[in-house]
Specification:
196 residues; mainly alpha; 9 helices; globular
């Protein structure tokens, strides 16, 4: 039943004391939020620390939560502010590389079971190597983007946010967000044109 609820309704239910509503929200956002952080800071350990801090902030803010914007905008704005705080504190550790996506690990061990199953016929070592090489190229192209462009691109792709939501989350105008996203897409296309 909760699977049909909007994020905002879930957060209001959590505010009212429904712990299962929080679990549903966590499941919806854990992977995309972690990937956003990991790709922004380029360090899995730091991303994990920031990830935990953000969820603690969500828990602590539940009593005062009001659905003034979409939940995704609200949580990614918290994430962005936490990243800014991190960069201010540790300015010499600016993002330089991406980390592998290990945020999709399933707590129930389903991923381990899937890993033990034989690969389908089209999953040849060559195809797997090609995909891995492509993923590395994409990560390097993302890391090469200026931080503000990478941020907007990741909010759009990982956060599934609209330009208006990105503008709110980044404290910029819609046109600024649109311009940054356009420049990011152009640079990514140029970097990866042989893959297109």
């Amino acid at each position: 039943m909760r699977a049909d609820w909007s994020d905002e309704r879930l957060m209001l239910a959590y505010r009212a004391g429904d712990a299962d509503a929080f679990t549903t929200l966590y499941q919806r956002y854990r992977a995309s939020l972690y990937r956003y952080l990991a790709r922004q800071c380029g360090n899995a350990a730091i991303a994990e620390e920031l990830f935990q801090d953000i969820w603690i902030k969500v828990v602590n803010a539940r009593a005062d939560y009001e659905p003034l914007a979409r939940f995704s905008t609200w949580i990614f704005r918290i994430a962005r502010h936490r990243l800014i705080d991190h960069y201010r504190r540790d300015a010499h550790h600016l993002p330089a590389q991406s980390v592998p996506n290990d945020a999709d690990d399933d707590a129930d061990g389903v991923d381990e079971v899937i890993a033990l199953l034989p690969a389908p016929g089209h999953e040849t070592p060559h195809a797997l190597h090609e995909r891995q090489t492509t993923a590395q190229r994409i990560c390097l192209a993302l890391a090469a983007l200026p931080p503000v462009q990478r941020e907007v691109f990741l909010l759009a792709e990982e956060g599934g946010m609209t330009l208006e939501e990105i503008a709110v989350a980044t404290d910029t105008g819609r046109e600024t967000a649109k311009s940054r996203l356009r420049y990011a897409l152009t640079k990514l296309r140029q970097s990866l044109q042989d893959l297109l």
